[in-house]
Amino acid sequence: MGNRGLPSLGLKGSRHIRVVFVHPDLGIGGAERLVVDAALALKRKGLCPFTAHHALPNLETWTQEKTTNQADCVLVNSHFTASVYKETFKSIKTSPSVLYPSLDFENFDKYESLTVRDVDLDVDSDCIFLSLNRYERKKNINLALHSMKLLLDMVNKDEASHIHLIVAGGYDDRVQENIEHYSELVSLATSLGISDKVTFLKSPSNKVKVALLRSARCLLYTPDKEHFGIVPIESMYVGTPVIAVNSGGPRDYY
Q1: What pLDDT was estimated at residue 176?
Q2: Distance CA 90, CA 73 (A)
Q3: Which of 21, 28, 31, 153 is the most exposed place for a label (fewest CB within 10 A)?
Q4: Domain that holds residue 82
Q5: Predicted pLDDT at 8
Q6: What region holds the Glycosyl transferase family domain (predicted)?
Q7: Nearest of 94, 89, 88, 91 to residue 74 by alpha carbon
Q8: Per-residue pLDDT for 253 more than 70?
Q9: If pLDDT is split at 50, 70 and 90, which confidence band does 120 have?
Q10: Are residues 69 and 181 in the same domain?
Q11: Do 154 and 248 share a domain, yes or no?
């Protein structure tokens, strides 16, 4: 295997190319799915991808810095991640290149006219707001619920009757945080008095996810300092506007 087709990576000579994905926790999420898709695509091209799944519990920053410094080329997914890289790996003098993730467009195009009514979701609202994240505290889903409460307090009763929030995302009953945070969010919706205005979904299928994105009036993307965030890209691809926290990778979108 040579470096044909990869001139922009600056690889020299005829050495074999090995691509390493260092991701200690391949959970259920857009970024993790993208890693797997990219690895499979590289394999089909004849390259050698290596991944790590829960295999690096003692990988210290020093070790990461020394091994990363041996790479011919380092790619990161946003300018925010590039800044974190430079701040963390201070001894590495070269700057990483930014390569934005892409989508599997076929997964969206084949459901071009899909709506929530086509996937048997019992949500009869004209104005659906969508939060699509894993059930993890760092995803800041609480913000979506508090924002929903503020919106409902601002509009009249008739307008409120048309508004609904759907919170959907990766959920694994083997992960304690998923179990705990799901319960926390349900309790928060109840305490805010908006439980009848919120629907919670666990690990929706790709078909349901596309239906949600196409049916939503707007996507609420709440993580703070997210390194990239693939869900807003998916949302924009199907023409649904995004309201995102003004930090991290999402700042690269505009």
Answers
A1: 96
A2: 17
A3: 153
A4: 7-98
A5: 46
A6: 126-253
A7: 94
A8: yes
A9: confident
A10: no
A11: yes
Amino acid at 201: L
29 Cβ partners below 8 Å, 6+ apart? Answer: 133, 134, 170
Q: Which residues are registered as beta bridge partners of 219?
A: 130, 242
Same domain, 126 and 222: yes
Does residue 1 belong to any structural domain of this protein?
Answer: no
CA distance 64 to 83: 16
Residue 52 has pLDDT above 60, yes or no: no
Q: Are residues 127 and 240 in the same domain?
A: yes
Same-domain check for residues 138 and 75: no
Cβ proximity of 244 and 229 under 8 Å: yes
Residue type, 127: C
Do 134 and 203 sit in the same domain of this protein?
Answer: yes
**Same domain (yes/no): 238, 166:** yes
Q: Is residue 2 part of a domain?
A: no
At 30 the pLDDT is 61
- Answer yes or no: is 92 within a domain: yes
pLDDT reported for residue 31: 61
pLDDT at 123: 87
- Higher pLDDT pick, 26 / 174: 174
Residue 63 makes CB contacts below 8 A (sequence gap 6+) with none
CA distances from 201 to 71, 166, 208 (A): 41, 7, 10
